[in-house]
Amino acid sequence: MKERIKVATESNEVQWLYSPDWEYYDYGNCKRYLQIIFPHKREMKKEEKYPLILFIPGSAWHKQEMYNDIPQYAALAKSGYVVAVMQYRESDIAPFPAQVEDVCNALKFIPSIAENFHIDTEKIFLMGNSSGGHIAMMTVLFSEHSLCEKITEISGVILESASTDIMICTKEPLPPWMKVRPSAVLLGVDKIEGNEELAKKASCGMYITKDIKLPAVLLLHSELDPVVSVENSRVLYDNLVATGHKASYYELEGNDAHGGATYYDSEVLDIIKKFCETRYNI
Length: 282
Description:
The longest helix is centred in the middle third of the chain and has 16 residues, at 98-113. The protein has helices at 70-78, 98-113, 131-144, 166-171, 182-187, 196-201, 231-242, 266-280, and strands spanning 15-26, 31-40, 50-56, 82-86, 119-129, 156-160, 216-222, 247-252. The protein is globular and about 70 Å long. By secondary structure, the chain is an alpha/beta fold.
């Protein structure tokens, strides 16, 4: 069988490319990497720049899987964002706040690759899901309270199903496959009970005060999330608003997703894109 067919001519629409394993920091016995997914067009002008989303993946603060979700991150890249997915030190080898230090080091590394990937270093967003959302929010809070190295100005923070309150997380039943609560491992203790003060110091609530300047925060959370209680986002949003900070909260009604395809649905992506555009068009 032999046929001639007509297909669409290649356009100059935004597509995406993937550049793996960029080492952003070497701790001596532990190297950490970024996965870069970036917008690409057939005719790419040298001066074209795109906002950056530094994405912090969830993993219950344990070792992260860095490759399976590349196609999902690509949806963000096709929307016009460079996405740098950062690997951070898992709680099993470095307790909190080592993960905040990792974000600081990743942000310091970004300018060195900005030209390679057409990154606009004045438009940087922190985004994380589950435990990654906790790390993202704690980083901006620690920076403002001078509890870590001062980070570059962040245009906005995007939190999906974020475990931002260790004490709320502790009230949830432990999944049958877990013997030790992941938040306890994060803090380097056997259990949260008896270490409540340590848990509070690793939660967002106590750092949200009126006297600090925070970037706008976008929260997304499934109402019936079975892994991280929706109360995390409800409480965080109320705290942000009560202290005069800019925050938007979208609760996915009747939904029980914890991350995954639901959070790359076109409606959710539109919410994220509008939030980002609002921040850098001010």
